[in-house]
């Protein structure tokens, strides 16, 4: 069973990702270390004692649709109620509407824990947060007044309606339409698919944010507008009125996150009865600028999904280590107890467990560093701009690498359990199933890699990422200067990986700026992994230098002497692999 | 939907794995190329048209236990009947008992196709074949006469009963016991778990092979005997008699292969009623030599599981390529048709698909080469010994690498499908679920790697594997001499990977022979992958040289310029990684 690793989370936040320095410099207002510790401790308790125990029930029962209503698994509605009563939904919400306005760093640390407890639970509020952000930044005062307080507290939940059957990664293909009624509202029509928490019984009302086209809108992404469509209308006094014409027509039968209802939503088919069909919606932001409204919250949503990868990896690692300490098979050097040795003493099992542990640690370090940059970006000015670029740079890594790690580590976790891993009741399999969606949704990992290479590497004329690599090199210098024992060849290996990182970066920057876009696209995915491994190794070193503990030094060295060497092959794949890829790809196209 | 890749299978058998040369040299008796083609074609038809269409039903319904009886999914019993009526179970069975006695190469090629159609279907007969082999080689004439013909035809099925709750990888811990009755039979008692096809309605009788201890047996693996325990006794005239005291008490709720009943079997609890409890069994082979009897069929069973990895990878790749040709999103260079481009035109998708294709091809080449060695080993004499060593060497690679590839490729397959990949009805998810057991059962992949390093590398004083690497080098020389266009840097890169392979091999041989067992155990898993990638690249080259086609050359080059470079990092992990692993592992052990 999951136990929230509160100390590890706190350490990574403070000493790897930069929270301690930010607190000390007063960059985060009046936030104190004590408050941080208290919040993490309490969130850890809730995730461990309240969320995690309901994961298995959620997975087994799933969400159930009947007569357009979705019933959540037994105990889940109460769980959600206790969770919002604890103020957790409001953690990083705006203070003006009842939120606690705490930094993103704390928000993602808590999010990691909810998702470790149960990813199907953690995903719901993430959507609400996205809706809060979009409304806060772009909606009219009237809409804010009506909706924000209840969305911040969690009394109502929010959803994001982008995808249609023909429009997934390519939103230019959207067809949902909105017609002006004449009174400032719109009638929205269309079908949206894969709508997470589109319908459920957690809350009395659900606030849908929906992308749709106005009648005279230009084609493509410049003709998309964003609408707020409540499930129930809200009366002047705040009470709920009539049912709007939006309904869930089906929920998906999925590989994982069974308790998260993935809905097909039908807008404007007249199911609500009464007058004219059409789901009544209110415009958020300007006409035809809906995608820009969505993009303002995209970074945070992507980081949130990245946390799911970290979360699953953490739970899978804990579970595998616990099992390996209990399960006994065979003899092992280094075990001198009675009978068969716990399998944790077998070097091959140790390799799996340490790989899981190291990958989880670097994914977490990258994600928290991304959150730190987001928090620092609020400063504004030159410094704010710098940190926003850093957040932009790290977001695709935090999303894609962490979720790939989630899948890899969950798979290794099943393996460590042997035959028991394949039995559903053991629980390792549910992590392997749940993990698999995170590399797909909120922009597939391929799209993250393309975003990284084509939009993030060119930031600041290409200098931003080079400055980042320079900062990482300084940590390696500090490691050499530290004279700490136990690092072995860590400094040399990390330095070599940073050289690979730099070479590949310069190569791709040249391609992007100089007509080699196909080469850049072909190298994007291996580059993203190279970036993460090279940076991740340095983050482990940073933590090890800060704490000077044998355990952290040993894990860093294991990573540097066993895992980071992959960067060389990745660099070659980036810089030398595109031509053969193009040559071989011809055979893939159906005649 | 799966279409058996009959031409690709035939090509790999003949021109990569050595079937053509063996036919031409008369090493396989009267086997002709025409017969090979006819069998592959017909097996492909059956797998495509009969097995594959029932996969989804099998996955959704699963096997159902009620009152100790297991009902297979709708249509499956008829499918099995048509399959044995087609003579497929008897394909490589001994001719003396009605089998066709065809080479292992054909057996595994057919097995690949059944498993591609549905892995839960393919696994059942694999167990029967194992039972046939054990009985043929070790049982008395009387037992052969009673059981073999019906097991060869498939009228009855067989099972293997090794695992107990405390004894998985470590069979020394077995507790099931057998007491001599005095009339040549034994009463068997105990609980066996994870028994594949332990109970079902495919056949009227089921023949269990069971490992158990005699009362006076020594402890450990030298005190284990093998018994044949039929579900129903067989009368003198071959008809079925009374029920034996062996029952299925439960079936597992598993991540995948839902239609394969994974049973807990209870021996000797007296459920059959009547007289004294105890499941009546007959000894196979000598007392206390049961493990040796099991080991004679272990190689083939491991290769059979390896074929499941190849099979899943093939199906996943086909499915992903088909989807990528249909699904349209965005624009792509190289697509000049109307509207959005099929995603197969996006370089990042191409990278996934080509990686899937190349990994599948090399896993298949290795597995078929292993089968070829098994066939050639029947020659006896020095040549036979050489080929048996080759089969021994390649078996752990065929098992472990192929099944790892099955998981990797199935996961990439889900990814290529985007959101649809997470929806069960799409079918990509079931491959991801099914694939996950193959690295675990029939000896976990970690155990395969340890077997490779500690038992197979030392064969022939260490010379066998070195000779194998030498043969691979000759193929690279032939590639250089071929003057074929389109290979790019293939020869250089394959040569470098063979150098890594050689270096790592020599390093591990030294460790094993010179007191460095812990180092060898720590490096086993990365070494196995290194071996497979280096050898696999050469097999692709061998095929490309033989066919001289642009497609095969391009895929080989893609592999050589994008994937084989991983061997360098793997070599370093093998030779330099153990010390840091040991240092970091201390933290894994629970206090």
TrEMBL record, chains A, B:
It catalyses: 3-(methylsulfanyl)propanoyl-CoA + oxidized [electron-transfer flavoprotein] + H(+) = 3-(methylsulfanyl)acryloyl-CoA + reduced [electron-transfer flavoprotein]. GO terms for molecular function: flavin adenine dinucleotide binding; oxidoreductase activity, acting on the CH-CH group of donors. Belongs to the acyl-CoA dehydrogenase family. This is 3-methylmercaptopropionyl-CoA dehydrogenase. Residues 38-155 form the Acyl-CoA dehydrogenase/oxidase N-terminal domain. The lineage of its organism: Bacteria, Pseudomonadati, Pseudomonadota, Alphaproteobacteria, Hyphomicrobiales. Pfam families: Acyl-CoA_dh_1 (PF00441), Acyl-CoA_dh_C (PF12806), Acyl-CoA_dh_M (PF02770), Acyl-CoA_dh_N (PF02771). Keywords: FAD, Flavoprotein, Oxidoreductase. Its cofactor is FAD. Involved in the assimilation of dimethylsulphoniopropionate (DMSP), an important compound in the fixation of carbon in marine phytoplankton, by mediating the conversion of 3-(methylthio)propanoyl-CoA (MMPA-CoA) to 3-(methylthio)acryloyl-CoA (MTA-CoA). Residues 473-583 form the Acetyl-CoA dehydrogenase-like C-terminal domain. Gene3D superfamilies: Acyl-CoA dehydrogenase/oxidase, N-terminal domain, Butyryl-CoA Dehydrogenase, subunit A, domain 2, Butyryl-CoA Dehydrogenase, subunit A, domain 3. PANTHER family: ACYL-COA DEHYDROGENASE, BROAD-SPECIFICITY LINEAR ACYL-COA DEHYDROGENASE FADE5. It is an enzyme of class 1 (oxidoreductase). Residues 288-452 form the Acyl-CoA dehydrogenase/oxidase C-terminal domain.
């Amino acid at each position: 069973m999951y136990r929230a690793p509160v100390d590890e989370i706190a350490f990574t936040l403070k000493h790897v990702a930069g929270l301690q320095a930010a607190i000390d410099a007063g960059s985060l207002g009046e936030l104190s270390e004590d408050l941080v510790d208290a919040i993490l401790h309490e969130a850890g308790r809730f995730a461990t004692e309240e969320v995690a125990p309901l994961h298995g029930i959620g997975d087994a029962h799933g969400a159930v649709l009947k007569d357009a209503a979705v019933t959540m698994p037994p105990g889940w509605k109460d769980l959600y109620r206790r969770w919002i009563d604890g103020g957790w939904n409001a953690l990083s919400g705006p203070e003006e509407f009842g939120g606690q306005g705490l930094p993103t760093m704390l928000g993602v640390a808590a999010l990691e824990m909810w998702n470790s407890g149960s990813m199907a639970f953690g995903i719901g509020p993430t959507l609400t947060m996205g809706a809060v952000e979009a409304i806060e930044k772009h909606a009219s005062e009237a809409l804010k007044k009506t909706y924000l307080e209840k969305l911040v507290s969690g009394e109502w939940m929010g959803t994001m309606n982008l995808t249609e059957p023909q429009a997934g990664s390519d939103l230019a293909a959207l067809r949902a339409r909105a017609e002006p009624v004449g009174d400032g509202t719109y009638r929205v029509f269309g079908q949206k698919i894969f709508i997470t928490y589109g319908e459920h019984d957690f809350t009395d009302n659900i606030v849908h944010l929906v992308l749709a086209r106005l009648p005279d809108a230009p084609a493509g992404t410049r003709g998309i507008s964003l609408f707020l469509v409540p499930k129930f209308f809200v009366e002047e006094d705040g009470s709920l009125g009539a049912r709007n014409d939006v309904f869930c027509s089906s929920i998906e039968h999925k590989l994982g996150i069974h308790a998260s209802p993935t809905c097909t939503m039908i807008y404007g088919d007249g199911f609500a009865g009464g007058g004219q069909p059409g789901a009544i919606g209110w415009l958020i932001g300007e006409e035809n600028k809906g995608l820009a409204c969505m993009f303002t919250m995209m970074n945070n949503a992507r980081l949130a999904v990245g946390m799911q990868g970290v979360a699953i990896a953490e739970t899978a690692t804990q579970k595998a280590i616990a099992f390996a300490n209990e399960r006994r098979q065979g003899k092992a050097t280094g075990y001198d107890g009675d009978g068969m040795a716990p399998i944790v003493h077998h070097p091959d099992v140790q390799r799996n467990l340490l790989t899981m542990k190291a990958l989880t640690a670097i994914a977490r370090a990258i994600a928290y560093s991304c959150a730190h940059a987001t928090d620092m970006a609020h400063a504004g000015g030159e410094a704010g701009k710098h940190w926003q670029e850093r957040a932009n740079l790290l977001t695709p890594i935090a999303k894609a690498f962490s979720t790939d790690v989630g899948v890899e580590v969950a798979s290794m976790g099943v393996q460590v359990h042997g035959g028991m891993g394949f039995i559903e009741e053991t629980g390792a399999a549910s992590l392997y199933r749940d993990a698999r969606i995170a590399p797909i949704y909120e922009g597939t990992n391929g799209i993250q890699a393309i975003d990284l290479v084509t939009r993030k590497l060119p930031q600041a004329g290409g200098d931003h990422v080079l400055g980042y690599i320079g900062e990482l090199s300084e940590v390696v210098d500090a490691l050499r200067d530290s004279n700490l024992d136990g690092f072995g060849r860590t400094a040399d290996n990390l330095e070599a990986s940073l050289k690979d990182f730099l070479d590949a970066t310069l190569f791709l920057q040249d391609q992007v700026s100089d007509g080699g876009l196909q080469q850049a696209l072909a190298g994007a995915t291996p580059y993203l992994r190279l970036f993460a491994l090279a940076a991740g190794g340095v983050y482990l070193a940073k933590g090890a230098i800060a704490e000077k503990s044998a355990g952290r030094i040993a894990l860093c060295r294991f990573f540097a002497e066993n895992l980071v060497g992959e960067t060389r092959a990745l660099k070659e794949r980036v810089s030398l692999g595109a031509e053969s890829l193009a040559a071989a790809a011809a055979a893939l196209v159906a005649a």
